[in-house]
Fold this protein.
Amino acid sequence: MELNLNKCDCSLCEFKTIAFEDLNTNEMISLCGYKTEKNYKKGEVIVCKGDEITDFLYLKSGLVKLYKAGKDGKDQIISIAKPFDFVSLVSIFSDANYNFSISALEDSTVCSVDLPFIKNLISSNGKFALNIMSKMSRNFDKIIDGALNLQTKHLRGRIAHILLFFSNEIYKCGEFEIPLSRKEIAQLIDMTTENVIRILSEFRTDKLIEIHGKNTVILDDKKLQSIAEHG
Amino acid sequence: MELNLNKCDCSLCEFKTIAFEDLNTNEMISLCGYKTEKNYKKGEVIVCKGDEITDFLYLKSGLVKLYKAGKDGKDQIISIAKPFDFVSLVSIFSDANYNFSISALEDSTVCSVDLPFIKNLISSNGKFALNIMSKMSRNFDKIIDGALNLQTKHLRGRIAHILLFFSNEIYKCGEFEIPLSRKEIAQLIDMTTENVIRILSEFRTDKLIEIHGKNTVILDDKKLQSIAEHG
DNA sequence: CGCGGCTTTGATGTTCATCAAGTAAAGTGG
DNA sequence: CCACTTTACTTGATGAACATCAAAGCCGCG
């Protein structure tokens, strides 16, 4: 049976640097057979907490959020993954089921590789195993660091932080559309929707940013930086 | 803190279930050669942020804290590791240097295995690799979960939580000595020293706990549980 | 003894969540 | 396409939760 009618050649895919750079030719060919690509529309749920973990996922394009769903829409966002990031986090090797959920913040393409196949690769290719561990490890560090940082900051500092996050890390541009609702921003940096709005308004009257409809423009990068660090 | 002379036989060590259960006889013998045990006194620093990572560490006995050191003693405690826990977290596979610190909360014995040797094992023994990944993965999940949980709780809930943590998970006993100073408790659950004390006092007047010198006694487990969940 | 660190309690002020209410935007059904 | 509903956004007022500041008691240690 042919799984892949989209006749990709993973060995040419720029995304193999995510983890697959250490595979030999044969392994690379197998990989293509165990791989599928899926597209998700903005807002679609990709993984639901409790789902069985059958695949190793990474993001090819778009933007997704990893989150824990709580009661009455009180979700908590764990992290935001951009292309080249793992989506599956580390947890896929610990449990049979996901203990968090994933959904698309923008139209996204997810590459999905059969998990038993990946485990097999880990068993048989030591370099690959170490590479994966190192990548996941770094992912982990970033999330922990983010969580600890949050705790030290006041609300203004947190807002400044995510504005710079989107500007510098995601869009690499001073003008962009925040792919999160105000509520989602609140869930990401642990505060209330009202305060997100309030502080964005403050920043606007202080001429640190401009907001035109959906568009956000960073006006004073340096001051925001300073607020993010010391505010 | 004397280095012992490694006369141990790791194949008999109950701690091999931490990760080494999949090693064959030869690998087990090598392991003993690459392993050292070190003892640390309560309060001693085991690893300092920035130290080169040369070994894979796990805790044989005692209790340690992993923390990020901040300015003027404003540390943040990432997690508390008990015997059978990894000490090195996942980060040892991502970076050449530690980006957190570790110190002993009680007199502790740490087992230390040469990291290149471990990496070698990962490369050559697929079962071992998967096992390690799964264990570290679970570790990661626990820490993330803890961090997210903190965010949802008020101060009283957090205090109730760590009281139960020590009672149920660490000492498995309703009467124990908290191995942390009030300040350290504050660092662990992100609040001020004064409020830790204040709330402990409240709990005492509410007959939820008793405090005799260093000793803490849990009086009303159920009520604490309820505060931890809904407070 | 006296010094410094840890602990405790109280008083004060700030930050932030909650509540309320109103506007804008976006989807829904006739 | 328009009325209708719902969802997102916004602003202000209020009070609660919490940090900060201050001061005093306690304890171990040189």
Q: What stands out?
A: The two ends of chain B are 43 Å apart (CA to CA). Confidence is low (pLDDT under 50) at residues 1-6 of chain B. Chain B touches chain A through 37 residues (CB under 8 Å). Residues 181-183, 193-194, 197-198, 201 of chain B lie near DNA strand C (CB under 10 Å from a C1').
